[in-house]
Specification:
Elements (H helix, E strand, L loop, with lengths): L19 H7 L107 E5 L2 H11 L6 E5 L2 H8 L7 E5 L6 H9 L7 E6 L4 H11 L3 E4 L4 H13 L5 H4 L3 E7 L6 H16 L3 E5 L7 H5 L6 H7 L8 H5 L1 E2 L4 E4 L13 H14 L2 E6 L5 H9 L2 E6 L3 H16 L6 E8 L7 H8 L5 E4 L4 H8 L3 H4 L1 H15 L10 H7 L4
Parallel strand pairs: 1-2, 1-3, 3-4, 4-5, 6-10, 6-11, 7-9, 7-10, 11-12, 12-13
Antiparallel strand pairs: 8-9
Length: 519
């Protein structure tokens, strides 16, 4: 199993033996004639079939373990009868990754109190101080892209290979076990047999993340409880899942806990005015509500001149500004007073302050409001201005996703590059995603030139919709309901935020729970 303490293991004749009677031969000195079959140079051959394995004691079924009285030719320390398997302990244990209980089957395990700290047996990979921090074996391109996008800046040694758990088992027979291992079990006829095979070639301290397409709760429970893997993630694997679920294992820190506790915050900001960030924020909030069937809050931090209310055909109140400025006023009834119902699962929280007013949100007020929102809503989409003020900096510090909306022009390229640097500078735990809006507008720069300016392709590209979007906004209707092309373009972003297929319907409750990842 994958346990808390690795036990050094050695091959027969590699330098360490079990009892005093076999110590001399095992240490590489002259063979002891009292030990049948001793080899020159310290090696001892395997016992005859059916008589013993790696261990001293009475008759022991062939395998790796420890045994009792009178000794047979073998390596190890005395004990009671042991069944074949890796590990040490008492009663039966199923194959898997984790801490072994008594009498393990083929698996990894931490030592029992009755077993000496040094136990000879089959050699396991040596724990090298410079071993890879992360190796992944994935079966599809989408999962590989999600890992590279989510973990690129979090691991000095990031190896992603194509294959499944069986591929991993074959590779790790000849390689040093990484600290964290991700394997794909999609398409395998017997995932547990493949994981058992993998367990036989890895060191006990490895942390294993499994991804697959099985949503059965029994499958999940068996992986976590019986097999002992660290995490199971149902596909599709997203950059967010990779960053917030696997990322902490790589950095060895719980620094992301605050960002993933409670409802998920998605910050949407235009790199400059007029690029359509509010349209994207409103449309994304509605798509998240439809795809996840969760409770969604759309928050507009444009306290003066915000347009979310206009796009949805409602008029906000002034209570939101008061709560941001005076934390004590944000009591238990705050959400009921200021949250405007848009549909069954979507609420709008916004303000409409006079242009001559000067709202002054406080950091304490913003944190209190968002703590309340995250206790009530599964997703919070925030339409916010740049550059960030006090309120925006708090949002960036807790956001799981930051969406930067730009247009097809030179100024947007410049400002998008600057915005990404700024987000990293303020200590945001999210990776900025870029949305290129109005692709194909007359006079706009081509996507190819924009990709060169950004240093990579935008994550999402929305075509220019000169008729549908302006008409929907003027009528106070959600543009995503009036323009199917907008909904289609936003599907990858919706999937990234919800970790669900945007077009999926009828998903089971357990499937939706899995898509969140274990927190």
């Amino acid at each position: 199993m994958y346990g808390e303490r690795a036990i050094p293991m050695e091959l027969p004749g590699s330098g360490r033996g079990g009892t005093a009677g076999s110590q001399q031969a095992a240490q590489g000195t002259d063979a002891d004639p009292a030990i049948p079959g001793a080899l020159p140079g310290g090696g001892v051959p395997l016992p005859p079939p059916g008589l013993g394995g790696f261990g001293n004691g009475g008759p022991v079924p062939g395998g790796f373990g420890n045994a009792g009285s009178p000794p047979q030719p073998a390596f190890g320390h005395g004990g009671g009868p042991v069944q074949p398997g890796f590990g040490h302990g008492g009663g039966p244990v199923q194959p898997g990754f984790g801490n072994a209980a008594p009498v393990p089957q083929p698996t990894f395990g931490a030592a029992s109190a009755n077993v000496p700290a040094t136990v000879a047996g089959p050699s396991l990979p040596v724990l090298a101080p410079d071993r890879a921090s992360f190796i992944a074996f994935v079966a599809d391109e989408a999962s590989e892209a999600a890992l590279r996008g989510g973990l690129a800046d979090m691991a000095s040694s990031l190896q992603i290979r194509r294959g499944t758990a069986r591929t991993a088992a074959r590779s790790l027979e000849r390689e040093v076990t990484p600290r964290t291992l991700l394997v794909d079990v999609s398409g395998l006829d017997d995932a547990f047999a493949a994981l058992e095979e993998l367990a036989s070639v890895c060191t006990p301290d490895v942390r294993v993340v499994v991804i697959g397409d099985n949503t059965e709760i029994s499958f999940y429970r068996r992986l976590i409880r019986d097999v002992g893997v660290t995490e199971y993630v149902h596909k599709p694997l997203t950059r967010d899942t990779a960053r917030h679920l696997i990322g902490p294992m790589l950095v060895g820190s719980d620094a992301m806990d605050a960002a993933i506790r409670g409802g998920r915050v998605t910050a949407v900001a235009g790199v400059r005015g007029g690029v359509g960030a509010t349209t994207v924020a409103v449309s994304l909030a509605m798509e998240i509500a439809d795809a996840s069937r969760g409770h969604v809050a759309l928050v507009d931090l444009h306290l003066r001149g915000g347009a979310t209310g206009l796009m949805l055909g409602v008029r906000p109140s002034s209570g939101f500004r008061v709560a941001l400025e005076e934390p004590g006023r944000a009591d238990g009834l705050f959400l009921d007073r200021v949250a405007i119902p848009i549909d069954e699962r979507l609420r709008l929280i916004a303000a409409e302050e006079p242009l001559e007013s000067e709202p002054t949100p406080t950091e304490e007020g913003v944190r209190r409001v968002f703590n309340m929102l995250r206790q009530r809503f599964n997703h919070i989409v925030v339409d916010m201005p740049l550059p960030p003020g006090v309120a925006e900096r708090v949002v960036l510090s807790i956001a799981r996703h930051t969406v930067l909306v730009m247009g097809p022009d030179v100024a947007s390229i410049r400002d998008a590059v600057a915005a990404r640097k700024m987000i990293n500078a303020v200590g945001s735990m999210s990776r900025a995603m870029t949305v290129l809006n109005r692709v194909g507008v007359p006079g706009g720069i081509s996507p190819k030139l924009i990709a060169e300016g950004l240093g990579g392709q935008p994550d999402v590209q929305i075509p220019d919709l000169p008729r549908q979007v302006p008409r929907a906004i003027n009528l106070g209707r959600p543009a995503v309901r009036e323009a199917p092309a907008l909904r289609k373009a936003l599907a990858p972003l919706t999937q990234e935020v919800t970790a669900l297929q945007a077009a999926a319907t009828g998903r089971s409750l357990f499937g939706r729970l899995f898509s969140w990842g274990r927190r």
